[in-house]
Amino acid sequence: MYTASSAVSAPPRPQTRLVQAGGPYLAPAPRAARPRSWAAGTGTGFGTQVSGRIDLSGPQGAQLKVAIAAVQRICPEFNPVQVLRRSGRSVLIVGTTGRTTAVAKCLLDHSPAWVERFRHEIASYRSFVRHRPPVRAPRLIAADPENCTLVIERMPGRAAALSRHPVEAPPRADVRAALGAIARLNAWRPPAGTFDAPLDYGTRIARYHELGLFTDRDRDDLQKLLHGLAHAGGRQGMGQFCHGDALLSNILLSPAGPVLVDWEHAGWYLPGYDLATLWAVLGDAPLARRQISQMAQQQGPAARDAFLVNLMIVLTREIRTYETAVQRTIKEAPPAGSVPVVSGALAPGEEQRLLLRRLHDDCAMARRAVRAAVGTR
């Protein structure tokens, strides 16, 4: 939540393979060495980082005035200091409330989907006031669900990654800390009725099938796994509390321990949803992926099947997101030759295309694992 989105980039990689180890097991093959720097591209996250001063001039300044006024209605002592991030969807403003440093988040796009998500995040922070999770999370200072305004304390620490899909493998210690925090959170069971289930698996699978993202066999195989999971423990029995957007960019690392931010997707999922999210974005960290796959299998075949269902859904969502990003980049790209290209740099949109190719390779591997899992039932 606190870090700005950076370029989407991924270098080419060799084909991955499926390793059988006590059932369908996703483990990428060793990766070859590659250059460590890549040209900047268009990010697809929360927005680009903006100036460190409050600029109230122009149309964006007028919009910022409205946001600050909304924050000060619910938190009169809030003194804005810096615009941390701004996008077409929302703005983050760093300020002070007395002796506390705070972050105000204001929704700019009040379309129904974003409003619902923002209110869910407010509800999550309010729930944490009464029922603290087993991981560190920002403390709620003030919130206004009607006007979609949220003020929370600013937590110290650095993001485990600055981009959604890190170009290079993060340090092992960072991955270990992130996985430890996710494991503690997934083992937590908040009181009944505190959180709902943000994802309807049957509906999402049917929707992806209608859009042509899932084949008939994909749909049938995933439905078979869901049917088996229902018999294994029922929807309630197989439920696991998840962050819902467990990206490394949403995990702050500090000496006091990891801090999880951006709780707008928190709720009950099939086991392994957070692990599937981390697996999907750690394409350049084969050792971390192997560790995640082992963690997903520890509870037996049912947990493995749930992880595979989650992985297919997460990877397909990422593919859909970056296909849209590639199309947008192609549409907005300047005419060929009108912009000088630095020697060795990638053409506009090439970073997204490389990442998209990697995601398709990952999805093909996950598809083979799903079919193997169906064959063992």
Automatic annotation (TrEMBL):
Residues 94-300 form the Aminoglycoside phosphotransferase domain. Pfam families: APH (PF01636). InterPro entries: AGP_Transferase, Aminoglycoside_PTrfase, Kinase-like_dom_sf. This is Phosphotransferase. It comes from Streptomyces hydrogenans. The lineage of its organism: Bacteria, Bacillati, Actinomycetota, Actinomycetes, Kitasatosporales.
